[in-house]
């Protein structure tokens, strides 16, 4: 069942909003307020989808992916078996993002924080539905 | 009706009153923290920290429909030197206006 979502974002209101959207779509959500805490969640518990902020203190979204990816590459039996679908949720423009090459994460969507909330909700729903269809197939 | 109240109405249509109220509470806490932090940075200038806090407050202000505040934070994020006594006072005024709009919206919606 494709229903476990992890939200990593330093902004509490953004986490609240995304958790609301995903719970409405039948997901169980977990949250982390920075990349370090998020990394621990990723390394300790299986997730079906990651919603990731890009600009965060301590370590950025990009650095979070690189950090977890590098740890998993050294583990004999990694908790993430196939690339984890990742949705970028940020106010950084898509053109300005430098996406890292990783083995354990696959960017499957982008939602801009500046979009109206209703548009954000529709985009998250469309992406999740597409991920669920892929899994069912 | 101002932009904040309009935006809160739109949020309530997409989400629900309980979630909007939670977002308002979170934002109100952030306002108080931001006031303290920016005041500190007026004395102890730290460009990176100012830019980062402005970025965070820009997103939060936009979420709540406080467009003028979001624009102010956007300009400070791009150029932290724009954090001055004058811009700080303007920030406090805009925060106060925003809190008034929130109070009015709460009264209208009984939250």
Kindly, what is the distance between the CA atoms of the first and last residues of chain B, rounded to a whole number of angstroms?
A: 18 Å
General form of chain B: elongated
Helix content of chain A: 40-55%
**Mind describing the biggest β-sheet of chain B?**
none
Number of strands of chain B: 0
Largest interface: A-B, 17 and 20 residues
Shape of chain A: globular
SSE order of chain B, as H and E?
Answer: HHHHH
Number of strands of chain A: 5
Category by helix and strand content of chain B: mainly alpha
Q: With helices defined by DSSP (H or I, 4 residues minimum), what is the helix count of chain B?
A: 5
What is the first-to-last residue Cα distance of chain A? 13 Å
Keywords:
heterodimer; A: 137 residues; alpha/beta; five-stranded parallel sheet; 4 helices; B: 111 residues; mainly alpha; elongated
Give the gist of this structure:
Chain A has 137 residues and is α/β, with parallel strands linked by helices. Chain A has four helices and five strands; from the N terminus they run βαβαβαββα. Chains A and B meet through helix 1 and helix 4 of A and helix 1, helix 2 and helix 3 of B.
Can you offer a commentary on this structure?
The complex is a heterodimer of chains A (137) and B (111). Chain A has 137 residues and is of the alpha/beta class. Chain A is 42% helix and 21% strand. Chain A has 4 helices and 5 strands, in the order βαβαβαββα. Chain A has helices spanning 12-24, 35-44, 61-74, 117-136; strands spanning 4-8, 28-32, 49-52, 84-90, 105-112. Chain A has a 5-stranded parallel β-sheet with strand order 2-1-3-4-5, sandwiched between helices. In chain A, helix 2 (35-44) packs parallel to helix 3 (61-74). The mean pLDDT of chain A is 93. Chain B is mainly alpha-helical and 111 residues long. In chain B, 85% of the residues lie in helices and 0% in strands. Chain B is elongated, with a radius of gyration of 14 Å. Classes of the chains: A alpha/beta (137), B mainly alpha (111). At the A-B interface, helix 1 and helix 4 of A face helix 1, helix 2 and helix 3 of B.
């Amino acid at each position: 069942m494709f229903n476990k979502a992890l939200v990593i974002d330093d902004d509490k209101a953004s986490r609240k909003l995304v958790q609301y959207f995903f719970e409405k779509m039948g997901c169980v959500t977990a949250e982390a307020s920075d990349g370090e805490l998020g990394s621990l969640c990723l390394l300790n518990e299986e997730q079906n989808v990651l919603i990731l902020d890009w600009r965060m203190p301590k370590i950025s979204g990009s650095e979070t992916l690189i950090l977890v990816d590098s740890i998993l590459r050294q583990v004999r039996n990694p908790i993430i078996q196939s690339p984890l679908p990742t949705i970028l949720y940020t106010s950084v423009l898509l053109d300005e993002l430098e996406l890292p090459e990783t083995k354990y994460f696959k960017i499957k969507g982008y939602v801009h924080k500046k979009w109206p909330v209703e548009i954000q909700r529709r985009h998250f729903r469309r992406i999740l539905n597409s991920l669920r269809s892929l899994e069912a197939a | 009706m101002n932009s904040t109240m309009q935006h809160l109405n739109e949020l309530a249509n997409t989400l629900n009153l309980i979630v909007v109220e939670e977002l308002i509470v979170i934002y109100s806490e952030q306002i108080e923290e931001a006031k303290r932090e920016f005041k500190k940075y007026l004395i102890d200038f730290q460009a990176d920290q100012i830019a980062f806090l402005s970025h965070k407050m820009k997103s939060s202000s936009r979420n709540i429909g406080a467009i003028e505040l979001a624009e102010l934070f956007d300009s400070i994020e791009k150029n932290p030197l724009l954090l001055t006594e004058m811009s700080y006072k303007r920030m406090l005024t805009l925060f106060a206006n925003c809190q008034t709009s929130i109070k009015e919206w709460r009264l209208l919606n009984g939250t």
